[in-house]
Specification:
With about 650 residues, the protein is mainly α. The chain folds into 2 domains: about 1-35; about 40-250 and about 320-550, Neurolysin, domain 3. Helices cover about 50% and strands about 5% of the residues. The strands form 4 sheets. It has a 3-stranded antiparallel sheet with strand order 5-4-9. Strand 7 (about 610) and strand 8 form a beta hairpin. Helix 25 packs across helix 26 (about 585-595). Bound molecules: 2-acetamido-2-deoxy-beta-D-glucopyranose and zinc ion. Zinc ion binds near residues 322, 326, 350, 647 and 648. InterPro entries: Peptidase_M2. Its cofactor is Zn(2+).
Length: about 650
């Protein structure tokens, strides 16, 4: 709040200057940023309300816990697991919710192969984390829009998009997605077939969207944890070095040192000593912290920190690179005027660490640092490697887009409050080709079960980052003199690549991002381009096309399967009985509520459930430093000027 007042004071002064007439372009640019006040433009009472609301949503999300899955308990007469009872966290069934998202639920979603357990966890998390936020979020949208309008924007989405300093941002994103969608669809079709081999076609529809709980991740946003079910050529050396890290006794600290050594090998900055003293790299046991990994710039040129509840896994090793990339960027632009100390755009900030990780995760680099024994560069190994990268980088793309597409439409009013959840699922089905494993309705608030919604962190930056990082990779590889396929490039120890990267990063936000791209590409382009990411995955694309010759590519929404209807023992209650009940409106409401514990309010106007034509299954349709507390600070007075723009996906 104090910072808001200070900022507001500056704003009052700046907006009264005729700054648009200044002759110096950098000074004009500075003023254009200072005159955007953000939420601090609100009158004091509303600012307070919005600040508290955001804080409440975040705490509520991070405090959410669920009960353990216990298949031996609470069955309905027909054998169905009794979701209704088990999720009623406040009643007296004696369940004490103890499982939190990190690490428990993340691990469960990643490792469980029991579809019922996954379905339970998937739903219980949304009940605990998403649902309670719905009312708060509605008010939050009103206040955010009001703040945006006071800053001269149409709504809060318009305000967010202004970070990208271009009028056709949505068209740019649509264009990129259109180029990448064919690759996504090939990956989707292949993974769907592998999941059918594992779970059967009564759970995974051959021509439909994939049920969202089977992809190894709470939000189906990356699919790396089902590599074991999908790996193209099984029985070959795994490029996941998790076990080696553990065997070699790596600590969280060691993993960050490893990441730092990559930056240093390029001639970039080592982490300052305060980083090692003050970062929080291990989950504390004596207090609750928000475990979502983030990087912090305290805006004093000295104090930079990372907060990450680090596990010893390859995934967290990559995350360590990601977070350290934020700090490296912070360090590179620290000599810029205060107001330009930011990424060229938010996606650039997300990309830096990932760019290094693209090299760091190559089998050749892992061998170089003794994490992998000799792996020959056979076609099969290449495909395995590219496939595991695609489960991360390609699988993520539609989710990376739709989170903000949903929010932009919410902020603009195109999605009304009564459609929050159904429109969320429209986007999930249309873009990702995943469907909810259970009926959803408008009492649910599934967007709220994803950190960035309650925490109010814009998301499309990750989509853009996943594309622009391959542009970076391609250019740095060129600078490093790499020849051969792009996915084999490793820029470790290349001073030339380091110099080029430094030239781009040290600009901070002093120039519009197209100019930064122009520096990166030596003037070849100033646009976001899908070319490099497509080039990187080209060998995989060809392989997937040949594998998918007989597959249905894409998905039909009306083929989706609602697994809530499939009981653990299907013979106990024939589907025909369920279908018959669903056809009668009065019985439908009671069935839905007794079977799924759902209150289906406006079922007729917003149908979320159709019947499959074969009647065998039911189907579903559907620069400024901020002021959030570094919640592990010992001395809370020194966080006034901190800059946590940098959360993890
Ligand atoms: C991008 O490059 C084009 C063509 O070279 C140029 O006309 C345009 O002004 C550049 N855009 C920016 C924002 O630098
Ligand atoms: Zn990040």
């Amino acid at each position: 709040m104090e910072w808001s007042r200070f900022h507001r004071h500056k704003w009052d002064q700046a907006t009264t200057f005729a700054w648009k007439n200044f002759s110096s372009a950098p000074v004009r640019r500075m003023f254009s940023f200072v005159t955007v006040l953000g939420r601090a433009a609100l009158p004091e009472d509303k600012l307070k309300e919005l600040t508290e609301l955001t804080q409440e949503m975040k705490s509520s999300y991070s405090a959410a816990k669920i009960c353990r899955y216990d298949p031996t308990r609470r069955r309905l007469d027909n054998g169905d697991y009794d979701y209704n009872a088990d999720n009623d966290l406040d009643n007296d069934i004696g369940c004490i919710p103890t499982l939190s998202l990190e690490p428990h639920l993340v691990q469960l979603m990643a490792t469980s192969r029991d579809p019922e357990e996954l379905r339970y966890v998937w739903r219980a998390w949304r009940d605990a984390a998403g649902r309670p936020l719905r009312g708060k979020y509605t008010r939050f949208v009103e206040l955010s829009n009001e703040a945006a309008r006071l800053n001269g924007f149409e709504d809060a989405g318009d305000f967010w998009r202004s970070d990208y300093e271009t009028d056709d941002f949505e068209d740019i994103i649509d264009g990129l997605w259109a180029e990448l969608r064919p690759l996504y669809e090939q990956l989707h079709a292949y993974v769907r077939r592998k999941l059918i081999e594992k779970y059967g076609d009564t759970i995974v529809p051959p021509r439909g969207p994939i049920p969202a709980h089977l992809l190894g991740n709470m939000w189906a946003q990356t699919w790396t944890h089902i590599l074991d079910l999908t790996v193209p050529y099984p029985g070959r050396p795994s490029v996941d070095v998790t076990n080696t890290l553990r065997r070699q006794g790596y600590s969280p600290f060691d993993m960050f040192r490893l990441s730092e050594s990559f930056f240093i090998s390029l001639g970039l900055e080592p982490m300052p000593s305060t980083f090692w003293q003050k970062s929080l790299l291990i989950k504390p046991t004596d207090r609750d912290v928000i475990c979502h990994a983030s990087a912090w710039d305290f805006c004093n040129g000295i104090d930079y920190r990372i907060k990450q509840c680090t596990q010893i896994t390859m995934e967290d090793m990559i995350t360590a690179h990601h977070e350290m990339g934020h700090i490296q960027y912070d360090l590179q632009y620290r000599n810029q005027p205060f107001i330009f100390r930011d990424g060229a755009n938010p996606a650039f900030h997300e990309a830096v660490g990932d760019v290094l990780a693209l090299s760091a995760a190559t089998p050749s680099h892992l061998q170089e640092i003794n994490l992998l024994a000799n792996v020959d560069e056979s076609f099969e190994n290449d495909i395995n490697f590219l496939f595991s990268m695609a489960l991360d980088k390609i699988a993520f793309l539609p989710f990376g887009y739709l989170v903000d597409k949903w929010r932009w439409e919410v902020f603009s009013g195109e999605i009304s409050e009564s459609q929050y959840n159904s429109r969320w699922w429209d986007l999930r089905v249309n873009y990702q080709g995943v469907s909810a494993p259970l009926l959803r309705d408008e009492d649910d608030f599934d967007p709220g079960a994803k950190f960035h919604i309650p925490a109010n962190v814009p998301y499309v930056r990750y989509f853009v980052s996943f594309i622009v990082q391959f542009q970076f990779h391609a250019e740095l590889c060129k600078a490093a003199g790499h020849s051969g396929p792009l996915h084999r490039c490793n820029i470790y120890r290349s001073a030339e690549a380091g110099r080029l990267l430094r030239n781009v990063l040290s600009l901070g936000k002093s120039r519009p991002w197209p100019e930064a791209l122009s520096v990166l590409t030596s003037g070849r382009t100033n646009q976001l381009e899908a070319g490099p990411i497509l080039e990187y995955f080209e060998p995989l694309m060809s392989w997937l096309e040949s594998q998918n010759k007989d597959e249905f590519i894409g998905w039909q929404e009306n083929e989706a399967i609602v697994l809530g209807v499939v009981s653990s023992n299907a013979s106990v209650r024939p589907f025909s009985a369920v279908i018959a009940a669903l056809k009668s409106p009065s019985r439908r409401a009671s069935l839905l509520s007794s079977t799924f514990g759902l209150r289906v309010t406006d079922f007729e106007t917003s149908p979320v459930l159709w019947l499959r034509s074969d009647s065998s299954k039911a189907v579903q349709k559907d620069g400024m430093c901020l002021r959030e507390p570094w919640n592990v600070l010992r001395n809370p007075t020194d966080f006034r000027a901190q800059k946590p723009h940098t959360e993890f996906t």
